[in-house]
Structure formats: structure tokens, C-alpha cells
Amino acid sequence: MQENRKPPRPAFHGSDIEQIEQYYGISKENIVKFGANVNPLGLSDSVRKKLTEHLDIITSYPDRDYKSLRQVIAAYCSTNADYVVTGNGSTELISLLIGQRSARHALVIGPTYSEYDRELSLTGGHISHYYLKESQDFRMDMDDFKNALTDDIDFLILCNPNNPTSSALTQDKLRRLARLCKEREIFIMIDETYVEFSPHIDEITAIPLVSDFDNLMVIRGVSKFFAAPGLRLGYGVTSNRQFLKELKRNQNPWSLNSLGAYAGELMLQDTDYINRTRELILSERDRCLTRLKELDHVKVYPAYGNFILIKLLKDGLTSFDVFDHAIRQGMMIRDCSSFEGLPGEYIRFCIMNPDDNTRLLNCLNKLLV
Fold it and tell me: What does the pLDDT look like over 178-189, one tens digit per residue?
């Protein structure tokens, strides 16, 4: 007699829109992507207009040193242009940095983005994890963390604000961390993909520390805040000139195309778009957090990114149940069961336009009151 077995439960990530479309039979054009963490305003109209007017730029090679773009990035970040390196998305720079450091023992602060582990696994070194504690709302306990730093660790990775917890280390903690790691000869990679969505950027960015510490590199990109994941533009900031020289030596020439370099300059100087984005995200995030805290069966955590993590506390209700309920109404959230170091039932969703946010809040309300 053949045993009846349920098909394995699918696990979708934020970018798996095609797989979701096929599995559920819902056109991807009709799905609101709450799992992708991308600015709901979409590409800036002024950037789009200028790009279409300058398409001929692709008939020429970009400046090999991307001098103009690096100057714009430096002005945007209030740093030195000589500290800046550009790349084919932050992913390329993360890969180059990890490969170049070739760590003997890397420590990753989690739960977090799985790509760090994948890249580290290619270098052959040992990988350990320090998991932020749910009981502390995923805030860093510096004294506890210090005890976790064994003598053989030579590389540290953190995402700030962190994905998926949306928690963040403040600049004073980052300075303490950088000093501690400097004393122990540990190099730090800080991924600031979501920093521009935070309530007060100056309070959590590590960019001001770069001039004081040469044992760290800050990485950012335009995929999320500027709604341009297909552009593949990322940049890193470090004052370690020797490391920067070696990184560039191992980087493919012209890794960023002419159109991407030009678009990057436009985006980072588009103050109207930047201000409108921050106004939307900050106001809607506050509204969503207020509504969520009214629900009976969830725990809501402080959010610094453009996304919110919540823990489900209703007996028998799983993260996939909530994902499935939402996607059937055309809203794709993130089932967080695939994140290592995040035991329990969690979902994550990003801030979208007000009407879409209201739809999702009403959807969650039906399950969690």
C-alpha cells in the first residue's frame, strides 16, 4: 500500500517571483512584492528621462577609474573619494572583499543574509556565527559579543541595518566594535544596503569611522533605496589603501558599464527623490508598526530598515500559513523559516505604498487578532 505523503513545502526568497508565479498560477504583474525590500517609488522619473536622452553613452568605454562617479559617491557619503571603489553591484564587492581577505576564521553576525556564508565557503576558511538574541529584540550586547571573539578570528561580517531583523548597531557601538577588532587584527565588512531607510542615518552609518580605522570596509548599493537592482551598481568605502589597491588589482576592468556609472551619478544627486523616499518610508513604517502592535498574536520588533520583522505567537499558525494566505491575495511577503539562527515562526515584509500597506495590514489582521 502506497503511503500518502504531502509534497514538500516550498521555500521562496524575496527575488523568487517567477517561481511563485508558476507555483500559484498568479501573474507576477499582479503580485505586490513585499518580500523584495525595494523602494516602492520605483525608478526616479528624472533619472529615467536623462538616461533615455543619453543612451549613446554606451558607445564609449567608461572611465577606467570612475573618477567622476567616485567623487559623487564621496560627496553623497561625506567621505574621501580616494577611499571609494565601485563595482558590479554590492555583490561583486562582497565577493572580492571576502576573497581578498581569505580569512582563516570568519565570524558572521546573524541571523542574516545567506550570501555571506556562500562566499566565505569558497575561500576554504572556518565560518562561525554569533546570533543576536530574540530576547533582546536582536540588539547587540557588546559585552557578550566580546566574549564570543576567539583569538583565531580574523574577519567579521555584519549587516547594518540587519536583514531580516531590521535591527541596527548605533555608531557608538560600531566605534567600540572597530576599536576592539583593530586591537585583535580583525578586519570588518559592514553591509549598509539598508542604511538610507533608517530614521536617522547619521546615528548608525559607519562611514565616519572609515577615516579613523583602516580595518573596515563599508559596502552599499543602489538596488534597494534607488529601486535599481538591475543596474548592478555598488560601492565600497575603506581607508586601507593597500587593501584597496589589491582589491582593484583583482577586479575585472570596467566592471560597471557606462550607463550604470552615469545613472549612479544622477541617482545620488537626486535630492527630491531621496527626500520623497525617506518621507514615505519613515511615515509608513511608523503607521505599520503602530497597527501591528495592536494585534494580539504577534511580537513586533523595532525597525531601522525599510522592512519589519514580526514573530507569530498564535498556536498552530506557521510562517508559511501567513505567506500562503497573503500570496493568494496577490501580496508576496517573506517566510523567514529559511534564515539560520531564527527559530520560531517569523515573517518579514517591506514598506510599500500606503494603499498596499493597508491591504497587507488588513490581511494580517484577519489571521492574528
Answer: 999 999 999 999
Cell numbers linked to 341: 539562527
Task: Report whether 155 contacts 186 (CB < 8 A).
Answer: yes
CA distance linking residue 268 with residue 226, whole number of Å: 9
pLDDT digits (tens, 9 = 90+) for 78-136: 999 999 999 999 999 999 999 999 999 999 999 999 999 999 999 999 999 999 999 99
Contact 71, 291 (CB under 8 A): no
Beta bridge partner(s), residue 188: 156, 216
What's the pTM value of the predicted model, to 2 decimals? 0.95
Rg (CA), the chain: 21
CA distance 30 to 35: 14
Residue 208 · residue 194 · CB < 8 Å: no
Helix-helix angle 354-368:319-327, to 10 degrees = 130
| Amino acid at the residue 265 | E
Residue type, 326: A
